[in-house]
Fold these 3 entries.
Entry 1:
Amino acid sequence: MTNIREDRTKRVPLGALRSKLTIPKDLIDDARFQGRWVVDRPGRLESAQAGGYNFVQDSTMTVEVGEGTDGRDKMSTAICRTVGTHEGGVPMKAYLMKIRREWFEKDQREKQAEVDRTDKAIQEGAIASQPGDKRYIGSQGITYKP
């Protein structure tokens, strides 16, 4: 019979639900930055960088460059996780990125303002289908019941 180590600090049962994409608290200063995982789809990482996001680095990881693990990019200290596969079976990675909290909150306010404008237009019945617009608006128009 195999000995079971009793000195484990944390036991995770086989098959238990757990999140691979939890952001480790010690890697991002929550007061100053907002973290998010960005999938390496074509152009996505570049778009995130253009929007002010930076890769979260973990220089304390002991893997040699080129060796690779599921926690770090093979050629850098960027933190990543395998989250699926691209066409052709190439591993799809999500990279941990961060942005200044004030920029993140400004972006969120701008996104919410657009949602509010659309919601207001719906409430007023002012959204009309345009040529090339793929929304369906029935012959009775839009009714809104908050």
Note: The mean pLDDT is 79.
Entry 2:
Amino acid sequence: MKTFSYWERKHFWGFWDFIIIGSGITGLATAINIKKRNKNAKIAVFEKGVLPTGASTKNAGFACFGSVSEILDDLENQSEKSVFDLIQRRYKGLHELRHLLGDDHMGYEACGGFEIFMKSEAESYEQCLGSLSYINAELVEVIGKQAFWDSSHRVEEFGFADVDHMIINREEGVIDTGLMMKNLLNLAKSLEIEIWNGVEVKNIQNSGTELVEIETQMGKATCNKTVVATNGFARSLLQDLDVSPCRAQVLLSKPIKNLQPKGAFHHHKGYNYFRHIDDRILFGGGRHINKESETTDDFGTTSEIQDYLEKILRTVILPDRDLEIEMSWSGIMGMGKSKEVILKEVMPNVLCAVRLGGMGIAIGAQLGKEAANLVSPQ
């Protein structure tokens, strides 16, 4: 703080009631919910990037809570209760985000989510089809309605090649990720929540009093309570957490005339996903072909996965169509041995709200609300 003037220390930097680390969906939702219940609270959000770093401004914009093959895969590795409790959390989270911003402020389209099955995946399709009654019955218990139906009769209308079957989730949709985050930031600022971009947190410690000390490249800041909401980057601050960075690569086509398909589409247990956006096709995924290389916090793309995505795009999704790739990018998710979120106090007055398992849009707003309940109970 040697570079700060008296005025800067008095009015800008030093002490806050709450410091939130990370300005993604979870971090902003935490700050907003604290402020709404405590209007006099002084709140700062520290963000190391110029924009929210991680996945909140880099995701594919899927308002989804899981495809059938992904749910079945989860059931092989987790208890039935944990799987459907997580679906309930995702479903509630989507509605919380929509309630927080309004559909128009996030470009929400209730287009449905389709899982596609290629000819070589007939066995997987039959397994999923045979599980629909069971999964729908469980969904009635946790979200109050059925969601999945066979929609194989619609395959032809989308113009896919080598695809025989589809299953629709009628409760899914898409959003405009950038619009959503822009309006979430605007909402936080309208509540006089301070957003500090370019501030990287180096260390967190309890000073031996009730105050928490936050060390940054700009100097130390103190607060009564802090929430770590950095998801895939959380272990750089809290080494003992079971959360690892996982890269998700995406590519985007140039505009395509008379574009079909339109909707949200899943493939291969949710590892691949594509959708329409502004007359373009956005296609992401491929992490399953090299999980080791994609367990990284390095933003970038690889020819291995980009070539894989482009091949499927040209041969399956848009066969016999002239298309050009306009851009590609990646985001960093937070994964662990379990898909359950981590929401707990890790040291006195320091809470973490991380490990969203690639479902930040679905979980972030609800997780932020739950974190606010813990650090600032009504």
Note: The longest strand covers residues 325-335.
Entry 3:
Amino acid sequence: MAKLNLLLLAVLVACALGLVTSQHKARKLFSDLEREQDRARELDIEHGQLQLEASTWGLPQRVERIAASTLGMRAPDPRRVRLVAPSR
């Protein structure tokens, strides 16, 4: 009878340790999940900001201003422009 009690005690201790270990792993994984979700939200915000910035950098007025000031480019004289029809 004493051997049976010791065996049951050992099984009980093993189950308790398994339960504690599994709960610890679950809490750690949940903490990791929350951290990664926060990071995903931050990246979504940054992505939106970068899209806004990219659309601002590509505005035609900005490109024209930089082309004129930095590169010395200007629009051609309309009298010197010729339209060429595509060949078939």
Note: Residues 43-72 form one domain.
